[in-house]
Amino acid sequence: MNPPDLFPRTVVTRCARFPGLLLAVLAATALARGQGPFPIVMQTDMPLKNAQFAGLLLAEEKGWYREAGLEVKIESSQAGIDEARRVAGSDNIVGSIESGLFLSARAEGLPVVAVGTMFQASPLCLISFAKAGIRGPRDLAGRHIVVHADGHEALATVLAKAGVPASSVRIDEEDYGNDALLSGRYDAQQGYTVDEYVALRTEGKDVVALPLSDYGHVAYSQVYFVSESFLARHRSELVRFLSVSGRGWRAAVADVPGTARMIVSRYEPGLSLPYQEESLREIGKLLWAESPVSGAMRPETWSENAGAFLRTHPGATLGPMASWADFTVTREASK
Questions:
Q1: What pLDDT, in 10s, does the model give residues 97-144?
Q2: CA 244 to CA 70: how far, in whole Å?
Q3: Residues with Cβ within 8 Å of residue 295, at least 6 apart in sequence
Q4: Which range of residues forms the domain containing residue 309?
Q5: Whole-number Å distance between alpha carbons of 234 and 91
Q6: Terminus-to-terminus CA distance in the chain, angstroms?
Q7: Count of domains in the chain?
Q8: What is the CATH number of the domain that holds 201?
């Protein structure tokens, strides 16, 4: 944003003393000019509107996007839709994606840019029953575990850093869900501390989680990404979107029970309320793991994540980081 181009310096100075006021003034000015609210589609990477998007859902519920001059529509993922390609071809869609999948999209040549992240640490983990005694990567030697298609890279990184030969671990691949672990065929399964792990705990299962981020898996989760064209043409609207989304996340974790009730009553009445509450508590541990600035990313984290990606994807190229990650949008959104 360039406030001095729109308002006298005295107005900007006064607004700076009150968080969010400048965004409101900018939005009101846009509406007064007859521009109307700018439409943004928030494309999530899950078929449900659950606690993993609580900050966005709360901001929508409270009308905060509208107050900032935005008309935000939160859309769940659907079978057969490639979210990365959909985002790449649009000037008004913000996507959310795991960092490894984002890097895959860039390696394929899609013109997408990471502009922030919901979770500043990955919730990826290995889940096992407590009786299995898996407390660290070295306990995986000789075990039979199952991962998803996107989990091989993270597991390979963790095993290598722990000095555990990959050949000593029997690894299978299956789809998402807890059926693999519950079947008794595996010692541990890939999951997320905010999802499958929470579901098992709220069902009364005696399980433990081995967070891969504690053992060398450096990555972001629920990365905000847009097309290069969106960033170039509508930067100020994107800044406002991330600012309001950050406000939503802070409010969501400040009232976990209330936010969980809102999600279940308005968006997903078929979901478990205890699950939503526990998931949101786990999410609160990840939102500001690297920085107190909502959505902020670090070049060092992306560099390490990209290095791990390239090591496990021979022949892939990403280009300079400046072409696929913008670290300034969240800084502007935090002002």
A1: 999 999 999 999 999 999 999 999 999 999 999 999 999 999 999 999
A2: 10
A3: 116, 117, 118, 224, 242, 245, 246, 330, 333
A4: 37-121+220-333
A5: 8
A6: 10
A7: 2
A8: 3.40.190.10
